[in-house]
Amino acid sequence: MSQPDIKKHAFYEQTIESKPIYDGRIIKVQVDTVRLPNGETSTRELVRHPGAVAVIALLDGKLLVVEQFRKALERAQVEIPAGKLEPGEDPREAALRELEEETGYRAKTIRHLQTFSTSPGFAEEVIHLYYADDLEAGEVNLDEEEFLTCEAITLEQADAYIREGRIYDAKTLLAVAYWRLGQLAGNE
Known about the structure:
By secondary structure, the chain is of the alpha+beta class. It has two domains: 6-48, no CATH class; 52-184, Nucleoside Triphosphate Pyrophosphohydrolase, CATH 3.90.79.10. It is built from three helices and ten strands. It has helices at residues 91-103, 155-164, 170-184, and strands spanning 14-23, 28-35, 41-48, 52-59, 62-70, 75-79, 82-84, 105-117, 126-137, 149-153. Strands 4, 5, 6, 7, 8, 9 and 10 form a seven-stranded mixed beta sheet that branches. Strands 1-2-3 form a three-stranded antiparallel beta sheet, with no helix packed on it. The protein is elongated. It starts with 13 loop residues before the first strand and ends with a helix.
């Protein structure tokens, strides 16, 4: 199925100029000057990101989650295992890698559920969400600058963590919703 020509969309914004602002280890920031549909110009501050993966992993009917400190929020939070894509890395392989690195479990079965944007108003980041089960023990292999704990929680615990604000990020909220829908349909 071919994609429509985006340049023909009524709201298309043509880039006139793109100015790099910051080139970091994880993100790049640029300011684009664009021509609006009405002919006027404006600027757009954009964050370039390589994308990420996240995994809904169930172990004996419980969701594997990790707790870690998130500097941008100045707080610790509970999240599903996730991580950034390396250049050219296949999202499925990245999901398998991140799951084992953060939780110490390998998935015999993994399937793609959804790819979604995180903050389309200013960032191009997308997250590829996977579902994994039939897990076997592997080996935790955290990055040098990564500090976290892993636990397996019930749906009731997940709901409590949401109420308490311990689960706060969109990918984990979406994961809990997918998990709940799966249970309602008689699946895990």
